[in-house]
Amino acid sequence: MTTIAIHQPNYLPWMGFFYKIARADKFVFLDDVQFSKNNLTNRVKILRQEKAKWLTQAVSYNFGDAINQVAFAKPDWINSHLDLLKGAYQHSPQFKAVWPDIDKLYRDLPSGDLATGNAAIVIRICALLDLKTEFFFSSALNVNGVKGDERLIRISHQLASGSTYLSGKGAQKYQDEEKFRDAGIGLTYSEFAHPVYEQSAPEFVPGLSIIDPVFYLGWKETGALLAA
What is the C-alpha separation between 153 and 156, in angstroms, rounded? Predict the structure, then answer.
């Protein structure tokens, strides 16, 4: 049975995001839903000076814009983010091995909207982690005019009849499981448990960007944790 996961194209997301990708046959970037300010679509936390601090993409948008209509506000944001990442992680155990990949990832990013750039980051990181799934964009699917669970059900139907939708645990509070069942779509929830690894912080800080474990553990070991 085909497993499908769907999520907004977040910026440099955390391990739980990639855990879902690792368990999905098909992953959909929900790029045509409304952009939400101060969400994880354009910011993520990294470890800087032993504390979790925001790494934020400055964006230009109008209220009501979809994520794929949001533009970058600063043309040089790539260089500034590379400088911040280098300053934050240059003393990490895997920095020398990982940095050339990170630098190339950013410099090869396509110009355009927030959704396209963030999706390109996720797809490239998946390749480096050896996570294999098929990627789609909701804007390229016929799901106009529906929202919430109905939208997720329609996307799942389009990609694979009788598929299973893999949801985040947080959605369990508001998703109508009966709707999925009546539509012939399975519904399951991610069981991600954040692994603990050695960081520079005095106490382990969970929920940081995928970049954090990569700089401390490397691509191979981080990928193995996600696939376990």
Answer: 5
